[in-house]
Amino acid sequence: MAEFDEKQKRIQALLAEHQLDALLLQRVSSFAWATCGAASYVNTATTDGAASRLITPTGRYVITNNIEATRIEQEEKLGEQGWQFRVAPWHGVNNAVAELTRGLKLGADGAYPGATNLANEIARLRANLTPEEGERFRVLGRACAAAMEQTIRAVRPGQTEYEIAARLGQETQARGAQPIVNLIATDERIFRFRHPLPTDKKLDKYAMLVLCGRQAGLVCSITRLAHFGKLPDDLRRKADACAHIDATFIAATRPGATLSSIFQRAVKAYAETGFADEWQLHHQGGPAGYEPREYLATPAATDVVLLGQAYSWNPSITGTKSEDTILVGASGNEVITTTAGLPTLSVALADGKMIARPAILEIT
To answer: Which burial class, exposed, middle or buried, applies to 123 when counting CB atoms under 10 A from its CB (0-12, 13-18, 19+)?
Structure first.
């Protein structure tokens, strides 16, 4: 209960800061965060769940319908955390929020009639991980890394992107995680699209696999690439540059650093490697938590890195990309999606620090 109690304290502090009385959490990510990992969704792609969470001065409530209440109560065991259920028939209207917040100043994790929108503030709460969440992230990272490694080693020319995505999804799901983002591109599509939804195109020589896996609400991200035959020199140069930029991001992500300062160091690395404008073609990542990115790093972002946070940086140069998820530690950063059986590049930074980044798997 230590994690749960800590989150209740953070919620009360947020309400006090904004002079509010009650908080409504509708998002799947917020529900999982506040309950230490419970699932409120049916559709895995939905933003708002089939159950909401309400905190008032007099109680903590789960608001849902009679379809979901039984599973949430029995399997998620929310009664043990002191939640009271307010259940309406699936075909009716649940008026519990209105009834329980009458006369109260309400905040919410998104748009809700009459409520103060605290979406940005709650994203920061979700990104400020507890030690228990860090441990769950490690378990998730290992599962996603293993799923990725198994899949990319099974990729063969002639497979469609759909087939590759199916294998990545199966390997991920078999390890208890959900592939909530499963992007596959082959050959020229890698150069054309940053977010390549899989198609029926067949692989010739070059494949990119992107996974965001979710378990107990937490989400980590990983990308790997494979090339059949000798890697062309121009692609190798891009991959080396991308690895250098990624290493720069990781080295700079230390407690107390602002996201804007980290971003500017990475922008400089883009320029130093000969690809000055590429950062403008795709976001560079940011803090991970109960969303793939709770918020993005930008040139103007004032957020500060905190000990124990997770970050997923994803620098890309047209035709290649580097992406892992890290935990920020007291003495250094830990890559939790390491694929030990795949090749790496050892990147030497200006301060003498060496950081290993994933290389493109060459299959000859």
So the answer is: buried
Per-residue pLDDT tens listing for the chain (364 residues): 799 999 999 999 999 999 999 999 999 999 999 999 999 999 999 999 999 999 999 999 999 999 999 999 999 988 889 999 999 999 999 999 999 999 999 999 999 999 999 999 999 999 999 999 999 999 999 999 999 999 999 999 999 999 999 999 999 999 999 999 999 999 999 999 999 999 999 999 999 999 999 999 999 999 999 999 999 999 999 999 999 999 999 999 999 999 999 999 999 999 999 999 999 999 999 999 999 999 999 999 999 999 999 999 999 999 999 999 999 999 999 999 999 999 999 999 988 899 999 999 999 8
> Full-prediction pTM beyond 0.90?
yes
Distance CA 259, CA 300 (A): 8
Please report, for the chain, the start and end positions of each structural domain, with discontinuous segments joined by +: 2-127, 131-363
Q: In this structure, are residues 310 and 325 in contact, taking their beta carbons and an 8 Å threshold?
A: yes
Please give the Cα distance from 9 to 190 (Å, whole number): 45
Q: What CATH number matches the domain at 131-363, 2.60.320.10, 3.40.50.10490, 1.20.58.410, 3.90.230.10?
A: 3.90.230.10
The architecture CATH gives domain 2-127: 3-Layer(aba) Sandwich (3.40)
